[in-house]
Write a structure and sequence with these properties.
Blueprint (H helix, E strand, L loop, with lengths): L2 H19 L56 H17 L5
């Protein structure tokens, strides 16, 4: 093995050691999952996507948005019920869950 090959091998080993020993990963580019591959999560505690209400998230290519505000429980009248349903529809549309 040439000295250059040995240097490159050591550099790769150092990078892998850092990657394997880290308790978190940061990506500065696209993360792509091939077709048919899934994300498997634990069954005890659960998994969060976004850990604060001001972190943005979206689905299906729409612009990411922060978590929608609380939607009030509607009173018995039809107008309040319609307002609540409309707020739910807006929240689902804004994050890309519905079109």
């Amino acid at each position: 093995m040439t000295p250059e090959q040995e240097r490159l091998l050591n550099e790769v080993k150092e990078r892998m050691d850092k990657f394997e020993s880290s308790n978190q990963y940061s990506f500065d580019r696209l993360v792509r999952f091939e077709d048919g591959k899934n994300i498997q999560t634990g069954r005890t505690t659960g998994t969060k996507f976004g850990t604060a209400t001001d972190q943005k998230l979206s689905f299906h290519g729409v612009t990411p948005v922060v978590q929608a505000g609380a939607i009030s429980s509607p009173a018995a009248e039809v107008g309040a019920l319609k307002t609540a349903v409309d707020a739910i529809r807006v929240a689902l549309t804004n994050n890309g869950t519905t079109g």
